[in-house]
Design brief:
With about 40 residues, this protein is an all-alpha fold. It has one helix spanning about 1-35.
């Protein structure tokens, strides 16, 4: 149990960086897609 807690602590910065990277990629993809469809929705 203690070992799992250490592993989770080690993974936390990587998970935060990965989620931030995925969010950035998703925003870029959505922006390109909206430009192709004729401007941002709304």
């Amino acid at each position: 149990m203690y070992r799992t807690q250490i592993a989770n602590e080690a993974w936390r910065p990587g998970r935060v960086a990965l989620s931030a990277c995925l969010r950035s990629v998703g925003d870029t993809f959505y922006h390109q897609l909206s430009l192709r469809m004729g401007g941002p929705p709304g």
